[in-house]
Amino acid sequence: MKKFKLLVVMLGALICFTSCASTGPKMIRSFPPQYPYSAKTNNIEGKVTLRFVVTTDGTPRDAEVIESSPEGVFEESALKSVERSQFKPGTMAGKPVGTAMNLTFVYSIEGEGQLIRIVD
User: Fold this and answer.
1) Which of 19, 60, 75, 95 has its CB surrounded by the most CB atoms within 10 Å?
2) Is residue 46 part of a domain?
3) Which CATH number does the domain housing residue 98 bear?
4) Pair 61, 86: CB distance under 8 Å
């Protein structure tokens, strides 16, 4: 009988896991990163990928660089941008949950200006 009850509980959890509404976090207010002056004047382009947690109130926490090219150029700009941004938290079964998120910032120079794209 214990095995049957365990199976029912596991099936119930599986059904909820596959059918309970869940969403990932979404950026609702962003602060564009600054193109570093030395990178702009030297025509340096690159990208930075950050990993961080969006808390239940939408605040980003524990941001870390997981990839950067070239290293030591754009990391500070990307980190400052994420720290100042606001997110709609992810949800599980309709309730806000802390969720890990990755964002990639692509820094490029086009013509006389610079472009920074955010890719999630």
Assistant:
1) 60
2) yes
3) 3.30.2420.10
4) no
Burial class (CB in 10 A: 0-12, 13-18, 19+), 105: buried
Q: Is residue 13 part of a domain?
A: no
| Full residue range of the structural domain in which residue 60 is found | 22-119
Mean pLDDT for 39-68 is 96
Q: How much is the pTM?
A: 0.76
Euclidean distance between CA atoms 71 and 81, whole angstroms: 18
Tokens of 64: 């870390």
Task: Read off the pLDDT band of 120 (50, 70, 90).
Answer: low
Written as one letter, the residue type at 74 is F
Preceding peptide of 70 cis, ω within 30°: yes
* Mean pLDDT of the residues in the chain: 82
